[in-house]
Write a structure and sequence with these properties.
single chain; alpha+beta; seven-stranded antiparallel beta sheet; 31% helix; binds glycine
């Protein structure tokens, strides 16, 4: 098992206090490293970001619920115990393997721009891009949430237990209270120390702060009766009670009251929201099908591109080494260059999905990799099957981390891998009916053009912002083999791709795979290595190849399940407070 070399207790976010969060890219909140082991089961398994939420999912699986049922229970409790990352005010991408039909289905429950939104949404009166914090704070950044419709469609298609039963744990937790976790407290503190305050609107201030104005501390018993009431309505009346009627009216009003623009979410936008079922994006890697979510996330395609290029190298022999870190990073640079130019909501922009994963295209791209020398910043390639995209300008949006990942296997053989988000930690800061609303619209490029060329990921009415979320199910012999995903903004892609390689190429246990130190490249100026892990010891060798290496906290939240030799092996990232539970 690869362990950090010199972790000593929590990595204090306060040490980063001078970082100007108003600038891009926003940093991630450090937390620490908790000792964790793989969990073995044979009946069912779940891994997610908080023990209270995982227990709620476990209870549903134990009662005979499906993976879809358990997801609903987990997501609702996460809304309370990990409000910085996800909730019913946000969106998600979900992969679901339906064992009864043998179908792998992908669900796009991404937040959606109001129909009236325009590309100039985040520009000031001089046509300049408004900085991130004022763009993200308030109703102008809120997209129509997708989670409730995703829960409804999942339950209609795959649920076994009554809908209202899936709300019980969350209602109890909201009513009777839960202890604020160390990570939640750490995130609350971070909002103050990083100049991205959460107490700007009175509703969130009242919920998340003490009367003296200080953020809640770990261990505080937090109750949310308003959310309990919201959940009761939804448990009784279903998702329609969220998208129409008084709850929708309150969302629309809260967005309008806190927004800096006129063209915000309307009741019609709420009522029109639809989950989209899209084809899975699968890449062939060493005989496995690595299946992910296609646009509007860049996750599935970019993970697939990195693996597709590395398929041309003997990664197994390289093992965990600076040589691998270099080759991997060079592949990531090439993939992120394509991501930046081509990937956005494919209902609005032509995304050459087939060409970007074309084996001979990726083999040609792989030939550009010099194993001795780091390249300059990469430009996008010219994949086959693309027509108009070369007229576009590359995206400048780094993406940010306010996200969570859930993996579930049930006793019926169904498998679920879902990444869920409210965008930046604590989203838009707009708090209504006991929950936060997302700031997902800042996942669009806030500047719609570079010179005369449009950016694919610009704001448009009804469009879904590009994501990096990479929920993945690796298929072996036509059946789920490895379920994985992570939060982490645009770093998600690197976290997921490297973990897949560790399991498939190096035959690592999923817990060990997650615990390998991170290194990553996003085709910016630096190759980032995870501070305090064995990845940091690669620094000299990587510098000698010409990389500018930066050691930093790389705070993934990987959750994974491997299905091997009749066992379900669950794993949770030691960098956050999640757990795996199964039997
Ligand atoms: N908001 C994080 C993502 O969608 O990638």
């Amino acid at each position: 098992m690869i362990r950090p070399l010199f972790i000593s207790g929590l990595v204090s976010t306060l040490t980063l206090g001078s970082f100007a969060f108003a600038q891009d890219p926003a940093p991630e909140e450090g937390y620490g490293w908790a000792e964790k082991n793989s969990v073995i089961g044979s009946e069912f398994m779940i891994s997610a970001a908080n023990p209270v939420a995982v227990q709620a999912g476990y209870d549903i699986l134990e009662k005979g619920g499906t993976a879809a049922d358990a997801m609903i229970a987990v997501q609702l409790v996460l809304n309370l115990v990990e409000p910085q990352s996800s909730g019913i005010g946000g969106g998600a991408f979900m992969l679901y393997w339906d064992a009864s039909t043998g179908d792998l289905v992908t669900f796009d429950a991404r937040e959606t721009a109001p129909a009236s939104a325009t590309p100039e949404r985040f520009l000031d009166e001089n046509g300049e891009k408004i900085p991130f914090v004022p763009s993200a704070t308030g109703g102008q950044s809120v997209g129509v949430p997708g989670i409730l419709r995703l829960m409804e469609i999942s339950h209609n298609l795959y649920g076994k237990l009554p809908w209202s039963d899936l709300f019980s744990s969350a209602i109890d937790t909201a009513e009777n209270g839960f202890e604020v976790s160390p990570r939640m407290a750490n995130s609350l503190q971070s909002t103050m120390s990083r100049n991205f305050p959460l107490d700007v609107f009175p509703e969130a201030k009242e919920y998340f702060f003490n009367q003296d104005g200080s953020p809640l501390k770990a261990g505080f018993l937090l109750k949310n009766p308003e959310f309990a009431n919201t959940l009761r309505v939804l448990a009784d009346r279903g998702a329609d009670a969220f998208y129409t009627g008084p709850i929708a009216e309150d969302i629309v009003a809260a967005v309008a009251a806190t927004s800096s623009v006129e063209n915000n979410i309307t009741l019609q936008d709420m009522a029109d929201y639809r989950v989209k079922i899209r084809p899975a994006v699968c890449a062939d890697y060493r005989g496995y099908d690595v299946c992910g979510m296609g646009p509007p996330t860049s996750g599935g395609l970019t993970v697939g591109q990195i693996l597709g290029m590395l398929d041309n190298f003997d990664v197994k022999s390289m093992g965990w080494s600076p040589e691998f870190a270099h080759t991997y990073s060079e592949a990531a640079k090439l993939a992120y260059a394509d991501r930046s130019l081509y990937m956005a909501d494919s209902d609005y922009v032509e995304v050459p999905i087939k060409g970007l994963l074309d084996k001979s295209y990726l083999a040609d791209r792989a030939k550009l990799i010099d194993q001795e020398k780091a390249s300059e910043k990469r430009k996008a390639g010219e994949p086959p099957y693309q027509e108009s995209a070369l007229n576009l300008a590359p995206s400048q949006n780094p993406g940010r981390p306010g996200t969570s990942h859930i993996v579930i296997l049930d006793r019926y053989g169904n498998a679920l891998s879902m990444t869920t988000t409210i965008e930046t930690f604590f989203g838009s800061r707009v708090f209504v009916r006991g929950f936060l609303l997302n700031n997902e619209l800042t996942d669009f490029d806030r500047a719609p053009k570079d010179g005369d060329r449009l950016v694919a990921n610009r704001v448009e009415g009804g469009k879904r912002p590009r994501s990096s979320m990479s929920p993945t199910i690796v298929m072996k012999d036509g059946k789920p083999y490895f379920l994985v995903g992570s939060p982490g903004g645009s770093r998600i892609i690197n976290y997921v791709a490297k973990t897949i390689i560790a399991v498939l190429d190096w035959d690592m246990d999923p817990q060990d795979a997650i615990e390998t130190g991170h290194f990553l490249h996003r085709n910016g100026s630096t190759l980032d290595v995870e501070q305090g892990t064995s990845a940091e010891s690669f620094t000299d060798a990587l510098t000698a190849k010409g990389h500018e290496v930066s050691a930093r906290d790389l705070n993934s939240g990987l959750h994974a399940i491997l299905i091997k030799d009749g066992q379900m092996i669950g794993a949770a990232d030691p960098r956050r407070e999640g757990v795996a539970m199964g039997r």
